[in-house]
Design goal:
Layout (H helix, E strand, L loop, with lengths): L1 H7 L2 H28 L3 H22 L5 H12 L7 H4 L2 H4 L4 H31 L1 H13 L2 H4 L7 H4 L6 H14 L18 H7 L9
Helix pairs in contact: 1-2, 1-8, 2-4, 2-12, 3-4, 3-8, 7-8, 11-12
Amino acid sequence: MKTGFALAGSTVEASALLAGITISAAAGGPVLGAFLDRAGRPGTLLAGALALYAAGLGAILVGLDRLPFAVTLLIAVSTGLLGPALSGGWSARLPDVARGDRLPRANALDAMTFGVAGLAGPALAGGVAELLGAPAAVVVSAVLIASALPFTWLLPARPAVARGTRTTSVFSDLVAGMRVIAGRPALAPPRPGRRVGPGRLGPARDARRGRAPGGDR
């Protein structure tokens, strides 16, 4: 928030940018998850989402004070739709790289590193903003996101047989997932005071497949 205020120069505009990029991430998560489940090479789709997100951060930085704020806010909302690629997009691919007995340990490590990064990231951004200025913090964020691109290419492709099993549309998958979520308390929307992350795709992915969260895959 401090970085956003330093960039926008207004608490109202900083709050609007933060809300736009966060709320749209919550909406983009299930859609990105559905497309990742269908992609023959999920790593390629994930790489594209990461690259566009990093570019979106740069566009927000350039747009402030140069474009009408409404345009910059629209860029922030569009960028936020790809936000789940930063975390949940990776979590959703764990079953592809950690099979069988390795999956529970991989899920635990994923949750642990996500929590650590969630604490360290804002501290790093705030430190860079304090030392070098808010624009530098945005640039560092974009560079760190882009640095993950080579690792997306290491994700395995889905078998051709699995790709051919999809017979429903993305919209149908999303509707089915919402029905499962509505019928399972463990997948219900968060209550006040309950932590939620915009990039968590795992429960939504399990819901689309008709499984309980963390169930056998």
